[in-house]
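Page 42, continued from yesterday. The earlier attempt failed because a stray header line got pasted into the input along with the sequence. Redoing it now with the clean sequence only.
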Amino acid sequence: MKKNSFLLVSILTFITFLPLILWRTRHRLNGGLLFTPFRKLTERINKIFKPVENKIYHCFIVITFLYFLTGLTCLFSESFKILGTRPLGMGGAYVAIGEDAITQYWNPAGLGIEKEVDVQLPFTVQAELTGDILGSADRLTELAEEYSEISSAQKTGKSLTMSQLSAFIKGIKEIESINDPKKGVLVGAGFGGNIKIQNFAISYNNFTSISADPNVDIKNLGLGSGAFSPQLKRAIYKAESYAGVDLGSLIDDDYSATYQASHPGQNIYDTPTDSSLATSASTLSAGIITDITTNLTNLGIDTSITTSLPAGMTVEQAIANAIVNASVDPVIAAQLGTTALTAAEIANYVQQIEEIRPLVVSILSDAINGSSYAKNQSNLTIRGASTFEASLGYGREVPYVQTETVLKGVLKGLYAGLNFKLMKGQVAYTKIRVLSDTDLDILEDFKNSQKISNSIGFDLGLLLKKEFFNRKTNFGLLFRNINQPTFDQPDAAINNGEGSKYKVNPQVRGGVAIWPFNWWTVSTDIDLTNNSTALPGYKSRLWGLGNEFNLVNKEWLNFALRVGLMNNLSESSSKMAYTFGFGMNIMHFVIDLGAAMSSDSVEISDGTEVPSSAAAAVSISFDF
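This time it went through. Structure tokens are written below.
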């Protein structure tokens, strides 16, 4: 995909610029014998382009730039870290700002704009619960009450209601959904020191990312043949243990007698007279109940029954009818401590059971193959990387393009910057098998597994200063880690198929900043690469929009308010985050605070809600 994207960009760029180059060099072509064969071609091109020379020329540049960005969005790289309090408060939109010492990280081209001395000490921490993992935990918590009732029913010998059976099925589904590779926990931190002196900057920053990736093995649940009783009695599947649910408690004789008493001449095993109820019973019979019967038979369990059934009726159909008939009977429902269900409610429960049926069948099939807790592979994988960067940066105006005679002044105001970085990487990895590992010390295991190695990195930044409607406007483009630095993986990661190298893939990020007034800044950034994270399967492509309002706006005294929005465009489960910040400058001593909080929150217990992601930052700086 990467190669094809760059090939397309290259071809389109060539097609776009070939006639443009011939046109712009037409005088040279016509004046030399070497280019005589091109004279007629350039004359034709000149006739086409001359009337709209400026418009066409600018359009070619814009179109080619868009082609280039289109190719970049097909790439994958490391997630972009939000470093600094001011950037965090402005929605992470800082590539085009070009101010203060921290611009070395965001866009080294900005180092060439303001000839000042600035010292900044930033600290940022963030956490994200990805893929609605809190939602899964919350839904399992909601189902816990149903599971408690299921357990109580088993202990007292009561039958299971349709809602309880559905809760059990939904619980399996929720547990299985935790294995989604997008679900997990991400924690990150960034801190360091940044010094800017004129066009140069030096910095020492750390970027740390840690992920926790849970995986639940729901197949090896210990459902071997020894888990079941030797026979089924009175049309009851007497399973002593099925993932915590006694399937033998679906129906018992007391409820059969109760049903006959309130429905003279009818048997609880008869097909329901209501067509909707009959359809639900038929679906249960042909579906989950037949699956259970088949797998229990394969386990060597006797599924024959002693209860007399209506002529021509199978065991599976009889049990399905009994479950449905009992669910709509108000007397039986009262004895079970619940209320009778409607036909529509039963149909909904049956649909939920059918949706998860393949997973239940898979679990039962594994029971035949000898699944057990001893084979259970449930694990928690923790990955982490801490990168220290000692950087030297330089930025300046790009020479030869600062006049109207070059490219019609399109590139006038263009700055470029470069970072050279010495990098030290500490990569750690541990996979804990929660049911088999003993004497667990997660932090100690994680610490002992780390591998330390060194590398170098390069960043390139471009910043274009313009004015539109007499308003200052900047365009920024950052190419970070363009040489793809790599670090050694620890042995544990290699042994688990993670590869021998931890790659810090390139990042490309673009931004625009506008100053409607000298006290108001509006900026927006977007990742042009689809970025990976420390959690495999979860991608990151951040978009941000920010505002800064300077309330006093003096060099020696200022109070700044910042608000913004930030969103991960790569993941639909990631919701919009709101950002805000505050800065205080008194006699060139500056303290900044910033925070971000997801608009999505989840109730975890007793009505307590927490955001799915949050970040906080603080920095101290001296601006001379």
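Notes: The longest strand covers residues 414-433.
Reminder to self: strip header lines before submitting.
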